[in-house]
Give the backbone structure.
Amino acid sequence: MSRSSAPLLYLAAAWATLTLAIGQPASANEAAWQALKSGGQVVLMRHTTPEQGQGKGNSLLRDATCARERNLSQQGKQEAERIGKNFESHSIAVGEVLSSPYCRTQDTARYAFGHVTPTGFLSLSEVLTPAEAARITAEAMNRIGEYSGAANLVMVTHEPNIAAISFELVEQGAFLVLKPRGGSEFDVLGKIRFEDLTD
């Protein structure tokens, strides 16, 4: 993946996302699930729906107690549980689950997969300096490209992080299936939207 072509790729991704929103063939989803079933892939997921409205916390603020952050709504918790059930129904082996240190990302991972390890390189890039945002993006890309486990690695993070890593636009509760190719290289095998999941 060439980072020098990021702006053009990002615009192409925006158009591709609009096209996918109109309708994505079921076969594309099946291909992504089949890749996960074979193991060794990386799931790059955006957190599910947070609470909305005044007094529901600050989406940019990091608070270890979760009290001042914008946390998952009840809907978001149910969405995360539904994601986990879909992984189970497709017999997907989940290995390590990493997330941003923000509470909404940790909770998405925990409700979906039952365990999570928060890590700094998935933290919200929007609140960082450009240099620090570039550093964590590079670290995330290296972790993806170098992954070699038998089960699938899951990373739960935020929209700007996913855009910087993959040049893809991802809705809340949606995830990309990535195939590691070594170094910081990987292929995007597909995107599964929350609306595509079964009940």
Q: What stands out?
A: The chain has six helices and six strands.
